[in-house]
Design goal:
By secondary structure, this protein is of the alpha/beta class. Helix content is 40%, strand content 22%. It has a 5-stranded mixed beta sheet. α9 links the parallel β12 and β13. It is globular. The structure holds zinc ion (ZN).
Length: 310
């Protein structure tokens, strides 16, 4: 059995799993420290130690929120990691610190897609889009049973497909993208803008001094807050439009929806997205289904480990 440690490097936490074959044996997490690559490498060492070290690990896989050169083992750009800079040779830094030979980097969403495809909700499906609705909206693509990367590694970025030309600003700097309406950070910005202009909402109060987390959206929705209902209607419409376009283009059989916002809003949110997709489908006979992701927030770490075994 191949034993691999998978690490998911996030903007707020670093999660790790020990994978024996296809079985998750252990999982742990630490906070993402400020201080750039050196601090991140120390956090990864601490995490791997808490998972029993590297004595029995054949490889380490690391999922990174950004642009990764998989073959060179270099993180080109990771704007969500504190003070990280550009062109960081993370694979060799971790290999030296932990004295392991094989360290494999992958993009975090790509890794989560591999995990859902091999072990999760998309197991057995060959033509799949994953959609992770969280702070932003990420996604990955599997066609003919193989992960698709595209010319620059950005294939599957459903969050940055255009649903309203010239529409609301997106986290990426452009506008009218799926993420502009469905990403948590964009929803928060719009809610605060409307609140500042005098529109009532419980969202701002519920968020307090912090970010408007996914749980805040779920709570305000449950309380029947009018602005929240409107903003989430718009999120569902944008996701329905973007996903229906992807289905028309690629003739997909399955769409897997995960991420922090989708987790907090639960099955009702995924069902609403499926309905929004279905009412916009080009082929009424399309077999496509929209289902919830199965591996939760461990999918990135599990996928990073799977990528390192192949
Ligand atoms: Zn965008």
């Amino acid at each position: 059995v191949i034993r691999v440690v998978g690490v998911d490097l996030g903007g707020t936490k670093v999660q790790g799993v020990v994978l024996h074959g296809t079985e998750v044996k252990q999982d742990e997490r630490v906070e993402t420290p400020p201080g750039g690559p050196d601090a991140i490498v120390r956090a990864i060492v601490e995490l791997v130690d808490s998972l029993g070290g590297t004595k029995h690990a054949d490889a380490i896989g690391i999922g990174v929120p950004g642009a990764v050169d998989h073959h060179a083992g270099v993180v080109r750009r990771a704007p969500n990691l504190p003070d990280f800079g550009e062109d960081v040779p993370l694979a060799s830094l971790v290999a030296d610190a932990l004295k392991v030979e094989r360290v494999v980097l992958s993009n975090d969403v790509g890794a989560a897609t591999v995990a859902e495809h091999h072990l999760g909700a998309a197991k057995g499906s060959d033509d799949v889009l994953t959609v992770f609705v969280g702070t932003g909206v990420g996604g990955g693509l599997v066609l003919g049973g193989h992960a698709v990367h595209g010319a620059t590694g950005a294939a599957g970025e459903i969050g940055h497909t255009v649903v309203v030309d010239g529409g609301r600003p997106c986290g990426c700097g452009k506008s009218g993208h799926v993420e502009s309406y469905a990403g948590r950070a964009c929803i928060e910005r719009e809610a605060r803008r409307r609140h500042a202009a005098g529109e009532p909402t419980t969202l701002v109060e519920l968020a307090g001094d912090g970010r408007m987390k996914s749980g805040v959206l779920a709570k305000a929705l449950a309380e029947g807050d009018a602005m929240t209902i409107e903003l989430l209607d718009e999120a569902v419409r944008a996701l329905g439009a973007g996903i229906a376009s992807a289905v028309a283009l690629l003739d997909l059989s399955l769409v897997v929806v995960g991420g922090g916002v989708a987790d907090k809003l639960g099955p009702a949110f995924v069902a609403r997205i499926e309905e929004a997709v279905r009412s916009r489908l080009f082929l009424a006979t399309s077999p496509v289904r929209v289902v919830a992701a199965a591996l939760g927030d461990l999918s990135g770490a599990i996928g990073a480990a799977l990528v390192a075994t192949t």
